[in-house]
Automatic annotation (TrEMBL):
GO terms for molecular function: hydrolase activity. InterPro entries: ClpP/crotonase-like_dom_sf (IPR029045), ECH_dom (IPR045004), HIBYL-CoA-H (IPR032259). It catalyses: 3-hydroxy-2-methylpropanoyl-CoA + H2O = 3-hydroxy-2-methylpropanoate + CoA + H(+). It is an enzyme of class 3 (hydrolase). The lineage of its organism: Bacteria, Bacillati, Actinomycetota, Actinomycetes, Kitasatosporales. This is 3-hydroxyisobutyryl-CoA hydrolase. It holds the Pfam family ECH_2. Its EC number is 3.1.2.4. The keyword Metal-binding does not apply. Keywords: Hydrolase. It comes from Streptomyces virginiae (Streptomyces cinnamonensis). Residues 23-342 form the Enoyl-CoA hydratase/isomerase domain. The keyword Hydrolase applies.
């Protein structure tokens, strides 16, 4: 049986259907690189909740319309407008988005994410917490938040904190995108499948078991770059402070490390320091839910930071690529400045309950 499900608001931006024993979610805003809106998040959550209890649905597949992106993140123009006016729409969006991230991570059925093309920010949140994560030669996976004065969220600090050595710290602070091989190395994906095979793979999932379909399509990815950079990355990013990380990168004598230092120094100094603190705290917090709760505090605090408005202005609104960060240098960001982002919010706290892990799902 093949039918469309159209419930809730904004139905054309999230297409839902079932075929055979599979349910399919297609993010359908190709002109916006399938960026997530609040109604889209609610629609996905509603569908997943329904399908979890539907015995006819044995697995869920998520992909993006077009060939450019699964999802390039959230609607940061809306966040910019909200931050400028001191509104609460962004906080409301993040609350539901992070709940969705937790739901995906604990989903009781296989959740197959086709991470083709650009997968950034919120796109990582709806894919990299799944139980079966597939990248292609076109995949570009990143958490680029420090470039807009923000901090990796949607469970990004959880995922990057788990990456081998200090690879996650490098990706979080610089916002650098990675291809298929490096996404696999960092634990952001599980399998490589050539993009040309994705339509067949998606169709076969309607009638076959996940592991059987994967056996037919999984291949070796093109070589990445991070595996051969582990020595300088692990040494430099193990430093106690962001200032020392930059110093080690510059002193290493490795051209790629010098480039990383230049990239890092172009990001919001406040966001860089808060991101480093968030990653290291994430390593001690335990399950994803605790990290998402921390990220919610950090994200809400960022709404009142001048760097978020300025970063989005420079990168997205005016596109002059010349943000004026405040403070303008890492050395000027104090410990108190960083601690403010982690302050409890009382009644406004996000509280999530951990349930059975998606890793217990039988494919």
């Amino acid at each position: 049986m093949n039918h469309d499900t159209r419930t809730g608001s904004d139905p054309d931006h999230v297409l839902l259907r079932t075929e055979g024993h599979a349910a399919y979610i297609t993010l359908n805003r190709p002109e916006a690189l399938n960026a997530l809106s609040h109604p889209m998040v609610l629609r996905i959550e509603e569908a997943l909740t329904t399908w979890a209890d539907d015995p006819a649905v044995e697995l869920v597949v998520i992909d993006g319309a077009g060939e450019r992106a699964l999802c390039a993140g959230g609607d940061i123009r809306a966040i910019h407008a909200d931050a400028r006016t001191g509104g609460s729409a962004s906080a409301d969006f993040w609350r539901d988005e992070y709940r969705l991230n937790a739901l995906i991570a604990r989903y009781p059925k296989p959740y197959v994410a086709l991470m083709d093309g650009i997968v950034m920010g919120g796109g990582v949140g709806v894919s990299a917490h799944g139980s079966v994560r597939i990248v292609t030669e076109r995949s570009r996976v990143a958490m680029p938040e420090t470039g807009i004065g923000f901090v990796p969220d949607v469970g990004g600090t959880y995922l990057l904190a788990l990456a081998p050595g200090e690879l996650g710290t490098h990706l979080a602070l610089t916002g650098a995108p990675v291809g298929a091989a490096d996404a696999l190395l960092c634990g952001l994906a599980d399998h490589f499948v050539p993009s040309a095979a994705l339509p067949s793979l998606a169709r076969e999932l309607a009638v076959d078991r996940v592991h059987t379909v994967l056996e037919r399509h999984v291949a070796e990815p093109p070589a990445g770059s991070l595996a051969t950079s582990r020595e300088w990355i692990d040494h430099c990013y193990a430093a106690d402070t962001a200032e020392e990380i930059v110093a080690r990168l510059l002193a290493s004598g490795v051209p790629a490390a010098g480039d990383a230092a230049d990239t890092l120094r172009s990001k919001s100094p406040t966001a860089v320091k808060v991101t480093l603190a968030a990653l290291r705290r994430a390593r001690r917090l335990g399950p994803l839910e605790r990290v998402l709760e921390q990220e919610y505090r950090v994200s809400c605090a960022a709404l009142s930071s001048p760097d978020l408005v300025e970063g989005i202005r420079a990168q997205v609104i005016d596109k002059d690529r010349d943000p004026r960060w405040s403070p303008a240098a890492l050395e000027a960001v104090t410990a108190a400045d960083v601690d403010r982002f982690f302050a409890p919010q009382g009644a406004n706290e996000l509280r999530l309950v951990a349930t059975a892990s998606s890793q217990e799902v039988v494919w």
